[in-house]
Amino acid sequence: MAVDPSGTDLETLLDEDPGGPVVMLNLLRFAPGGRASYQEYSRLASRFLAEYGGELLYAGDGATPLVAEEGQAWDAVLLVRYPSREAFGRMIADPGYREITALRSRALAEAVLQPTTPWDGGRRAH
Predict the structure, then answer these.
(1) Residue 73 carries which DSSP code?
(2) Where does the chain have alpha helices with state H?
(3) Share of the chain above pLDDT 90, in %
(4) pLDDT at 108 over 90
(5) How far apart (Å, rounded) are the C-alpha atoms in residues 3 and 125?
(6) What residues have CB less than 8 Å from 34, skipping those under 6 apart?
(7) Does the residue 55 lie in any domain?
(8) What is the pLDDT of residues 28-82, one digit of tens each?
(9) How far apart are CA 41 and CA 105, in angstroms?
(10) Does residue 6 register a pLDDT over 80?
């Protein structure tokens, strides 16, 4: 199972850029003993998140799903906002960030990293 984006994935993310901020939905399934490695990755990654204008909006443990097919339960869910897809791309290309990605890769058995676009174009509803 894939846990890291490929170069082709990043190219597609940037090519499909509608502009503006992006919120990345992270669905994580930990490898045995992987939670500690992911927590260390998160601690180290927070520096890069701040440097590239990212913000952790939410992080939580998954619970028993109400509506899901077999195998669709996740151990953790994160929502991370970046000022742009380009900022996300620059962060994951940063040599310092790349040095810590092995912690994330080892921690996960499976992951979904889904970029999202606001329905209202990023404007707040009144």
Answers:
(1) -
(2) 7-15, 34-51, 85-93, 95-107
(3) 69
(4) yes
(5) 34
(6) 106, 107, 108, 109
(7) yes
(8) 999 999 999 999 999 999 999 999 999 999 999 999 888 888 888 999 999 999 9
(9) 9
(10) no
Distances (CA, A) of 62 to 27, 65, 66, 71, 78: 9, 8, 11, 13, 10
Q: Is 54 helix (H, G, I), strand (E, B) or coil?
A: coil
Q: Provide the 3-class DSSP secondary structure of residue 23.
A: strand
Q: Which domain holds residue 86?
A: 7-13+27-62+74-116
C-alpha 30/C-alpha 28 separation (Å) is 6
Rounded to whole angstroms, the Cα distance separating 12 from 113 reads 13
- Domains of the chain: total: 1
Q: How far is C-alpha 24 from the geometric centre of its chain's CA atoms?
A: 5
Q: What token pair was written down for 100?
A: 């810590």
Residue 12: closest CA among 98, 85, 90, 78: 85
Please state the pTM of the whole predicted model. 0.86
Whether 102 is covered by a domain: the verdict is yes
